[in-house]
Amino acid sequence: MSGIRDWAERMWTGDLGKTNIHPGQARVQFEEVDESLGFMSAFSNALVLDTEEGLVFIDTSSLFHADPLFEGVRAWSSKRVHTGIYTHGHVDHVFGLLHFDAEAREKNWPTTRILAHQSCPDRFDRYALTQGYNGHINARQFNFPKPVFPGRFRYPDETVAKERALEVGGVRIELYHDKGETDDHLWAWIPHRKALYTGDLFIWASPNCGNPQKAQRYPREWAVALRKMQALGAETLFPGHGPPIFGAQRISQALGDAARLLEIMTQQTLDLMNEGATLDDILHSVELPSELLERPYLRPIYDDPRFIVRNLWRLYGGWYDGNPAHLLPSPERDLARALAEEAGGSRSLARAARRYAEESKDSLACELIELAWRADPEDPEVAALRTEIYRNRAESETSLMAKGIFQAAARDSDPSTD
To answer: What percent of the chain has a predicted confidence (pLDDT) above 70?
Structure first.
């Protein structure tokens, strides 16, 4: 128990490292919390309850970590897996039971019952339709060498609408649905332990609520869920990523701060939308709550809170950004070529981009180098400058989402990768 508590303490005091933001860097270890409760830290986490009828998993972790999960749990308990609960259908939460399922078949045990929200099957159906697209997303987001995304899923046997209470082997588990990172999210309350399992509604980082390559997220509803959890008075919090939080005061603070971050971003954005501001106006007017983003559990190391504004606009305002030229635009390459011609050629745009980069005006530098490259992607000078600018931009960003996209852009134009 000392290991997990030491880790939790280091994280709370600000020693984050990189152990909770990337599949290849996650802390991967199964640890006993007490004789009937085990916690798998991985990408993603899983909580295992030992009951008289068998084991209950809240989240099942990912294909990346199915081996250490099985080995860790089996060194701790030999009981069959009675129930598995998906907090949501993201692939890092739903593939960890593969070895347990194979074991159950070999030993002729009953099949593990899987529970999830009623929208989870629709998510899996959507993933089947967009398998290739999601593979490309993951390659950019996590710097994978090639697109990879599963095509088959273990669908739930039973689904939950708004809430449901389970009892397995004398242990009561209450499941609640709230939208947040996804529309199919459940979180779990174990009353006799005063223990909370948040899933990805808390991940030791600024909420993953704006991810630019993923489906709709729900900042306002997410904040409501966090306030519900905060009101429970939990004494232990188990998150979807990162270590547990021990102690009611710390848990209340962390949940309250995360909720306030989302509430501030949501209110500012909606106020500006209601005033008739364009998306561009809002993106450059919303003020980030820096005092909250400095908290060890809210730093923008995974998603970027500035992306939340775009998600709110998409949710409440549609895709038209307020610029009429973007309504029925010309192809981007045609615009880039026209501007390059007016500027004296693509190299003129590229060299201007380099000057802005040298002045630390990174956004302008990226805009100009992208125009130059789209105007003439075969020009070696333009390609080299584009690679340099995006590599430097990736280094300067803190969020994995931004880093991944800028690194992918740099690779696209890097002559050495041909």
So the answer is: 97
Residue 4 structure tokens: 């997990």
CA nearest to 203, candidates 394, 32, 11: 11
Contact (CB, 8 A) for 309 and 286: yes
Q: 149 with 183: CB under 8 angstroms?
A: no
pLDDT in tens, 5-60: 999 999 999 876 665 666 667 889 999 999 999 999 999 999 999 999 999 999 99
Which pTM was predicted? 0.95
Which tokens hold the place of 359? Answer: 């002045």
Strand order in the sheet with 163-168: 163-168, 171-177, 186-190, 195-199, 236-239, 245-246
Indicate the average pLDDT of the chain. 95
- Going by DSSP bridges, is the β-strand pair 158-160/113-117 parallel, antiparallel, or unpaired? parallel
Confidence check: pLDDT of 131 > 80: yes
**Which domains, ranges and CATH numbers included, belong to the chain?**
2-261 (3.60.15.30), 328-417 (1.25.40.880)
Mean pLDDT of the 294-298 span? 94
Q: What's the CA gap between 114 and 84, in Å, rounded?
A: 5
Model pLDDT, residue 14 = 86
